[in-house]
Amino acid sequence: MESKDIECCDVEEVHEALLKIVTEKLPEEEVLYNLAELFKVFGDSTRIRILFVLFEAEVCVCDIAKALNMTQSAISHQLRILKQSKLIKNRREGKSVFYSLADDHVRTIIAQGLDHVQEDD
Fold first, then answer.
1. Phi-psi region of 94 (alpha: psi -120 to 50; beta: other; left: phi over 0)
2. Which domains does the chain have, with CATH numbers?
3. From the DSSP assignment, how many helices (H) and strands (E) are in the chain?
4. Pairwise CA distance, residues 113 & 109, whole Å
5. What phi and psi, each to the nearest 5 degrees, are found at residue 90?
6. CA 98 to CA 18: how far, in whole Å?
């Protein structure tokens, strides 16, 4: 990616009408903090890989570990983070625990991000 300087105004001029619109629409600080925390969860490639596995099917930890060539312990750690962030859910069936995406929002977030990184400049 090319590094470009950020263009700045030559004079300081506050556009009050625009500023009023922006400040009225700006979410509360706590909401913005929670959103930033959510996006941090997406900042780990292992968690992204797990989510892509869960795009295809509801699977158990054993299947995810095998698909990603990782230990069950490493997968379990990442699943805990994903679950705490409400991105995945699980259900028990006998001795197995199956994981799936929490809802379609998760699929949309990942799909939009993938579209964005695959765009031509």
1. left
2. 16-118 (1.10.10.10)
3. 6, 3
4. 6
5. -140, 160
6. 49
Dist. CA 68–CA 48, nearest whole Å: 11
Residue 1 has pLDDT above 60, yes or no: no
Q: Which long-range contacts (CB under 8 A, 24 or more apart) does 99-107 make?
A: 99/54, 99/58, 99/59, 99/60, 99/61, 99/64, 100/54, 100/58, 101/51, 101/54, 101/55, 106/51, 107/55
Residue in this structure with the two tokens 């983070």, named with its chain if needed: 81
pTM (two decimals): 0.82
Confidence of residue 2 (pLDDT cuts 50, 70, 90): low
C-alpha of 30 from chain center: 18
**Model confidence pLDDT, tens digit, residues 54-67:** 999 999 999 999 99
pLDDT digits (tens, 9 = 90+) for 80-109: 999 999 999 999 999 999 999 999 999 999
